[in-house]
Amino acid sequence: MNKVFFDYKLDLIEIKKENQLDFTELDIHKLKNMLNGRIYVFFEYDNPKKRNFMLLDTGIIDYLIQFNNVLTYIDKGNSETFTVSRDYYSNSLDYFYSKENDSLKISEVNSALYTIICNYKDFKKNYEKFRKKVLNELVVFYPQLKENNAFKEHFSNFL
């Protein structure tokens, strides 16, 4: 069984509304402010009393880009990085990578609500599967994304 599992949710009514807009010319900053939903990250623990999930109520594209950056920074040798929500008041996380035991410590920053430790390799592997699934589904939900240059620039390698 995987030790880290990602999932997401988009509101079907919002998808219908957003599809009324012309996506083809939007830049990446505008795209990051759209496609709002929730990203769920679940962690398998032996101790049932430990917090075992993260819920990110955010722009899906925004957090895909931020997770991509986290993995890139860590893979380039950095041991500390962060992600921050557009509003700066929620979903702000610090990441600490330990090369010695290949662990990733994720801490919620705004209210210090939780800290989760997982295996980095599991996190990365399962995120990459999740990213591929989400991107393939997003171009079905939002067909105009296939024509958007900013989307193609950031995600064409992952489709």
Describe this structure in words.
- 36% of the residues lie in helices and 27% in strands.
- The chain is α+β, with helices and mostly antiparallel strands.
- It has one domain.
- The protein is globular and about 45 Å long.
- The relative contact order is 0.18.
- The model has no long low-confidence stretch (mean pLDDT 92).
Provide a compact summary of the structure:
This protein is of the alpha+beta class. The chain has helices at residues 12-18, 28-32, 60-75, 120-141, 149-155, and strands at residues 4-10, 36-43, 53-59, 80-83, 93-98, 103-108, 115-119. It has 5 helices and 7 strands; from the N terminus they run βααββαββββαα.
Keywords:
159 residues, 4-stranded antiparallel β-sheet, 3-stranded antiparallel β-sheet
Which strand order does the major sheet show? 4-5-6-7
What is the percent of helical residues? 25-40%
Overall number of strands: 7
For this entry, what is the oligomeric state of its chains?
single chain
Roughly how many Å apart are the termini?
25 Å
Average pLDDT reading: 92
Radius of gyration: 16 Å
User: Mind describing the biggest β-sheet?
Assistant: 4 strands, antiparallel
Query: So how many helices?
Result: 5
Proportion of beta-strand residues: 25-35%
Supply the helix-strand structural class: alpha+beta
Uncertain stretches: none
Shape, please?
A: globular
Order of helices and strands: EHHEEHEEEEHH
